[in-house]
Amino acid sequence: MEDLSYLEIFRQRWLAILIAVVVGVGSAALVAFSIPPTYTATATLFLAVKDTNATLAERSQFSLARVNSYTALVRSSNVLQPVIDDLGLDMTVQELSRQVTASNPNSTVNINISAQASSGESAAVVANAVADSLSRLVAKVENFGTFSVSLDRLIPALAPVAPSAPQKNVILGLGLISGLAGGAIIALLMARFDHRIRRISDVRRASGLAVLGAIPRMRRREMLAETEPAHDVAIADAVLRITQANGGSMPRMLLLVPAGQTSGPGHGRLGIAGAIAATGRTTTLVETEQTTDTSSPFAEYAENEGLAELLTGSTTLPKVTRALGTAGAFVVPAGVALPTEVQSEESIRAVMSKVLYAADVVIVQATPSSLLLSVPVVAPYADVSIVVVRYNHSTDIDLAQAVSQLRIAGVRPIGALLVDVPPAKKLDLLSTWLPEDFAAKPAKARITPRRKTTKPATAAAKPVTAAKTSVPSKPAAAIKPPVAKKPKVSTELVVLPSTADERVDVD
């Protein structure tokens, strides 16, 4: 959160803010429309003091001294009880007093009497009745001595057109402001405590890795053979950057490790396998986790034999290998057998040797908890690794743990692959790369089985005769001196060219 501006935080959590605003305005509307309307009418009285012997200043002083005391009489029973009797109201003096108020504007001899009721007509009638009752009481009490006092109705109360309460616009405005404030607080809290990865800088901060590709989310209606152009372009860019991050060469064996428990949809790794195969390299994708998800692109292989049976030795690699849509792209499904015991190192090595022998590039996705082949088991055979980060699902903690596990296992992570990115999300990947993200030379292949090589066909080649003691022309490394005993079969693993003509089946 340290490097995020408030505007960026609010933009990322706009949905939470919108929900808070809807809740705030909705609650305010519920309150505003559930309160019954109240109408207020106001009558204005004028205090007149008469005395032929008093000066104007004396009458004015007397009026200002008396007018404040008259407002206190409005809620008295001497004023309200006659109103109840005259209007036939079904309420007590205390109930009516809560609906009536009186005020005296500063430095005036006016008295404003306001009454509230459920209708405008009732409010006006009550306000005028209270004003008349107060006038009669003041005339009765004050008319003695030299001064003659009267309260005249200067402005009668009129029935209001609109209710005075509730003020719906004010309530709705407060609801809107409360929703915005609440949404902003929620967004800030989410930015503080929500560690899901949504940006390239999140990946760099949590792992120090560069993002090699951003694979957009596939729409449900899209089938495996009908990918979107944006998806294909993102896959091709990711393959190019994988090559750049590996010193300009595609790794012989690539290990994909998801950050977290959810690896996300399989369209990403299927697309990468197809894109590598499109460059002329035979590519095999090895699935290490059995799935029953019908929406997975590997659902069609759920009932087929695969890696599980290959590890137990009950089948062979050609029988479990399935062709993908792109020429030269294959997949070895996870299989149906459940592993009942830990596989020996010899069986795992034999399987990995066969898979690597049959393809130019092998892609394996594994997790630390994979039942068939986990990360610690596959890591010794992988040249490099890539952490698969699922947009808005994987957390920075998951990413950091995945990178730590790979480094402990001894396989170098060359970058991260961001998958399931919203199609509308535009990410500039290359601008975030650092010079150290580009490897100076490709990673060395860890395991490559020895392959049989055929003698180059030449027109000058002649058959070997018993009279000759020389041997046919061969590569220098393959020439061996004749011995009397049967040569011992070598089991060492060396790196040889991986072309289609040099590949033979290994059972």
How many structural domains?
3
Biggest beta-sheet profile: 8 strands, mixed
Broad shape:
rod-shaped
DSSP E strands, number = 12
The helix/strand class is alpha/beta
CATH superfamily of the largest domain: P-loop containing nucleotide triphosphate hydrolases
Calculate the terminal CA-CA distance, rounded to whole Å.
Answer: 55 Å
Our estimate of the beta-strand percent is 15-25%
Number of helices: 15
Report the mean per-residue pLDDT as an integer: 81
Helicity range of the residues?
A: 25-40%
Task: Say what the CATH topology of the largest domain is.
Answer: Rossmann fold
Strand order of the largest sheet: 5-12-11-6-10-7-9-8
**Rounded radius of gyration (Å):** 44 Å
CATH class of the largest domain: Alpha Beta
Structure description:
The protein is α/β, with parallel strands linked by helices and 507 residues long. The chain has three domains: 6-35 and 166-193; 39-155, EIF_2_alpha (Alpha-Beta Plaits), CATH 3.30.70; 200-437, P-loop containing nucleotide triphosphate hydrolases (Rossmann fold), CATH 3.40.50.300. 37% of the residues lie in helices and 15% in strands. It has 15 helices and twelve strands. The strands form two sheets. Strands 5-12-11-6-10-7-9-8 form an eight-stranded mixed sheet. The longest helix has 26 residues, at 168-193. It is rod-shaped. The two termini are 55 Å apart. Residues 450-507 have low confidence and may be disordered.
